[in-house]
């Protein structure tokens, strides 16, 4: 057993996120583990671009109010303590509500040996009319 040193907080890049987003890597999937965990903090209105994960993703809200949507689905409002699972290959986005900060643990698995394709595939930014207007 050993203490894993904290990595510096990273600002979410503009090509993948809209608004102010910062994340800390909690678990990096170091073999033999494939578990990846990031603590992600979103300012009001900040959110990811559309993306999908080869092995799915679980989000657990630790603070605030967030939104998540799969392509073609309804927007789901998430609150502290809520957990949302998105199955493998499903396009989705997630982030803070227009009026509240939100933080969540994002959890997914890296690719298995011999598994083809990207671990996470990023698409377009969430378009006008897809993310709800603030109040």
UniProtKB/TrEMBL annotation:
The name on file for this protein is Cupin domain protein
| Source organism of the structure | Arthrobacter alpinus
Question: Cupin type-2 domain: from which residue to which, for each copy?
Answer: 39-100
Q: Where is this region: Disordered?
A: 115-135
Top-level lineage group? Bacteria
Write down the Gene3D superfamilies for this protein, in alphabetical order.
Jelly Rolls (2.60.120.10)
């Amino acid at each position: 057993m050993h203490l894993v040193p904290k990595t510096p907080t990273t600002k979410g890049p503009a090509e993948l996120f809209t608004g102010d987003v910062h994340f800390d890597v909690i678990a990096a999937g170091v073999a033999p583990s494939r578990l990846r965990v990031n603590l992600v903090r979103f300012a009001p209105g900040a959110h990811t671009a559309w993306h999908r994960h080869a092995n799915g993703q679980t989000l657990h809200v630790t603070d605030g109010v967030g939104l998540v949507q799969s392509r073609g689905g309804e927007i789901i409002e998430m609150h502290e303590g809520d957990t949302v699972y998105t199955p493998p290959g499903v396009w989705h986005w997630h982030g803070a509500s227009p009026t509240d900060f939100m933080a969540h643990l994002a959890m997914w698995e890296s690719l298995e040996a011999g598994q083809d394709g990207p671990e996470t595939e990023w698409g377009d930014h969430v378009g006008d009319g897809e993310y709800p207007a603030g109040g």
